[in-house]
Amino acid sequence: MNAISKVADKVLGKVETSTPAKPEVDESNLMNAVIWKGKKDVRYVRKPKPCITDPRDILLKVTATSICGSDLHLYSNAIFDMHEGDILGHEFMGIIEEVGSEVKKLEIGQRVVVAFDIACGTCEYCEREEYTACDTTNPSKLAEKMYGHRTSAFYGYSHLTGGVPGGQSEYVRVPFADFNCLPIPDDIPDEKALYLSDVVPTALHGCMLGDVKEGCSVAIWGLGPVGLLVARWCQIFKAGRIIGIDRVPERIQIAEKLGIEIINFGEQDTVKTLQQLVPGGVDVAIECAGFEYSTTRKHKVERALALETDTADIFDEMFTAVLKFGRVSVIGVYSGKANHFPVGQMMEKGLNVRCGQSPTQKYWKYALKMIQKGEFDPTFVVTRRGKLSEAPKLYELFNDKKEGVIKVFLRPDEYTEDDRAHIKNLYFKYSSFLLELFSISYSCRVFCFEVDCL
Ligand SMILES: [Zn+2]
Ligand SMILES: [Zn+2]
After folding, report:
1. What is the location of CATH 3.90.180.10 in the chain?
2. Distance 195 CA to ligand 1 centre (A)
3. How far, in Å, is the centroid of ligand 1 from the Cα of 226?
4. CA distances in angstroms from 358 to 144, 204, 278, 327, listed in the order given
5. Domain spanning 2-198+359-428: which superfamily?
6. Looking at residue 15, what DSSP letter applies?
């Protein structure tokens, strides 16, 4: 599928975007980065350092990054249009090392989180806060052909979403930086701030799409990092019953500690158990798993034979378990076509199905406030801390659900706590050098003027 999509991408060509689609790089200056090489082949290599190519850009020195559950779809080569050598990663934060001449709200040395979706901030979609639908940042004609429209560009997530180099690297160029960076107060550590780039706002988006409110019953399919964070938001919104569905022991342990009800689908029938737990059906079903997780033989076979790209198994379960006129929220990734989609169930039960990638910038200020107040702490999903160079091994463990890897927190290998002070220092040295030059040139001009007068 990926090979065919790459050919289609080449034939169709690209659309002009509002920011350079192919950022410049400094070939003489190399950095470390994690790249996609092929199916189940991710490597830590040297790549050219990016440069500012638009006056609205910043150059970010990455201090922390993560591997997302949705990166696993790239790892298994299930997403269209990945190219060998693409830098991975869409969850990252860091310190601003350079600012473009038109950046107004940010400065060198500032600590920021970057949204996974790249929004221009000014198109009609951005004005409606539908940032993941930004009309101007993704050049992919293939996306237009497949979906009728282009979504916004994402970092490190295939050429279908722009082929933008990602944040599992030491440096990243961030376009429309005033809009796509969230400054982080000093009292919030990186460990708590990093996940504002995606999973924390995405989980909140899942609750908003499902209209989770006080007293309602919610079932969550998939207790990966996003599913667990959805459960935590549901507690904050005072949902009456929260039932998580998974079978990975380490995930179940965290969910139990959180205090939600569990269905282990390795041992229990999901739909029957839900019907026993909540006779009449749950108010809200939230999908946090994605298109690869077939549970029935028919979908397993059809996916293996490439007769479909995505499975509808979880939709079958959700549509059966949710009550009539119930709410279904889909935030797990789906990107192609699924056979046997239960369209009749959806129609006849009058289900309210809402889905989509989270517009991070719409939610992140609220989420940051909740973190600052101590009401929301995303670190309960972090099970492993490591270095960027360990990413290839961690992809494998995360994919195989081994060694309890649920969410990772990665630092660049060269990271030191003094990074920020160092960048600020450089900035001040540079500023005082400019000031000195200015005063020398001024003195010269005064001197010439005085000579002229003589
Ligand atoms: Zn993510
Ligand atoms: Zn836009």
Report:
1. 2-198+359-428
2. 9
3. 9
4. 20, 9, 29, 17
5. Medium-chain alcohol dehydrogenases, catalytic domain (3.90.180.10)
6. -
The closest ligand to the CA of 157 turns out to be 1
* Residue 161 Cα to ligand 2 middle (Å): 14
Query: What are the pLDDT tens digits along the chain (454 aa)?
Result: 566 666 777 777 888 888 887 778 888 899 999 999 999 999 999 999 999 999 999 999 999 999 998 899 899 998 878 999 999 999 999 999 999 999 999 999 999 999 999 999 999 999 999 999 999 999 888 888 889 999 999 999 989 899 999 999 999 999 999 999 999 999 999 999 999 999 999 999 999 999 999 999 999 999 999 999 999 999 999 999 999 999 999 999 999 999 999 999 999 999 999 999 999 999 999 999 987 677 777 778 877 877 777 888 899 999 999 999 999 999 998 888 888 889 999 999 999 999 999 999 999 999 999 999 999 999 999 999 999 999 999 999 999 988 989 999 999 998 877 676 766 666 666 666 666 665 665 555 655 555 555 4
Q: 130 alpha carbon to ligand 2 midpoint, in Å? A: 8
How many Å lie between the centroid of ligand 1 and the Cα of residue 225?
A: 10
Q: Where in the chain is the domain with CATH 3.40.50.720?
A: 203-355
Write out the two tokens for 171.
């440096």
- Kindly state the tokens that stand for 345: 């169930």
Ligand nearest to the CA of 123: 2
How many angstroms does the Cα of residue 181 sit away from the middle of ligand 2? 15
CA atoms of 240 and 236, how far apart (whole Å): 11
Domain 203-355, architecture per CATH: 3-Layer(aba) Sandwich (3.40)
Buried b (16+ CB within 10 A) or exposed e, 139-159: bbbbbeebeeebbbbbbbbbb
Judge contact between 282 and 219, C-beta under 8 A.
Answer: yes
* Ligand 2 centre distance from Cα of residue 131 (Å): 6
pTM, entire model: 0.89
Is 321 in contact with 293 (CB distance < 8 Å)? no
Distance 236 CA to ligand 2 centre (A): 31
Pick from 51, 363, 37, 84: nearest CA to 198: 363
Instruction: Give the ligand with the smallest distance to the CA of 150.
Output: 2
Q: 143, 16, 136, 148: which is closest to 80 by C-alpha?
A: 143
Which ligand is located closest to the Cα atom of residue 180?
2
Q: To which H or E segment does residue 319 belong?
A: helix 313-321
